[in-house]
Amino acid sequence: MANDSLTPSLSSTRQYAALIRENIARVIVGKSEIVDLLLVALLSNGHVLLEDVPGMGKTVLAKSLARSLNAAFQRIQGTPDLLPTDIIGVSYFDQKQNEFTFRAGPLFSQILLVDEINRTTPRTQAALLEAMAERQVTVERESRRLPQPFLVIATQNPVELEGTFPLPEAQLDRFFLWVQMGYPSEEEEQAILHRFKQEEPLDTLQAVVSGEEFLALQQAIRQVQWQPVVERYLLALVRSTRSHKDIQLGVSPRGTLALYRACEAYAAIQGRDFVVPDDVKYLAPFVLGHRLMTTHRNRMRGRRNAEIIAEIIQTTPVPTEEIPSVLAPR
What we know:
This protein is of the alpha/beta class. Helices cover 43% and strands 15% of the residues. It has 13 helices and 11 strands. The strands form 4 sheets. A 5-stranded parallel sheet has the order 2-5-8-1-9. The protein has a two-stranded antiparallel ribbon with strand order 3-4. Strand 3 and strand 4 form a beta hairpin. The protein is globular. The chain starts with 7 loop residues before the first helix and ends in a 15-residue tail after the last helix.
């Protein structure tokens, strides 16, 4: 239930999220949950790893989000011969100006889609680390700030693994969320046929919020409140990954903070100024799943990280203490 006592900034977060969701729905059919997760990542200043087979609409989704925010969009196709300078840019000598000039690469955008990131070499993958973590790149000892807001949406195909370079744990940990889009239902797929029969809806999509307004929303979500029992519940889930028998490497403190921020953003776009245990339960698989390294025996058995996270959620006691009246919806 929406909280009518929200502060103006948090109320704006809910309203803008609804506008963006509705706007993207003009192009993308039936993926409101994925849109919400992208908004959670963007509000939390994080990045998203989309894992799915080709043709699921990942590029169209990224373009729709960029147009809804009036944000600069660039797409990079991952290939083994892609060099770091191809994405960062390069300095060259301008004979007319008689000086070196920096030509920015596609990394200097606001919404960056890196398609099939696992087909790029580790050297090129590593070139994204500084940009994703610090919102800047260093070229010839000079640091250059990236435009804000800045969101990297990287995709990888989980089926065709020949000739790929799996992302190392340090790189995976930089991604705020791991998401799978999944196939549409029969009704949704029929709606897609009708929607794209006469025109391309993406061509006429208009912005509903500016980048500057969205930057203000990133600060607004910090007003979301936590009960101590809910915080301890979040910590219990995370710490359980470090002692689970099937997990070799548990979630790092960076992952703990990511889940914390994700819950705040999700509560805000749902129209609440407080986090509930269900927020933690819902977001844990998306935030924590890709940050685990399971044991070799577990990998041989083919058990997925999502199954382990689901087991941890099921066996971790959920706090039942009532929400104090100061936090409860009015």
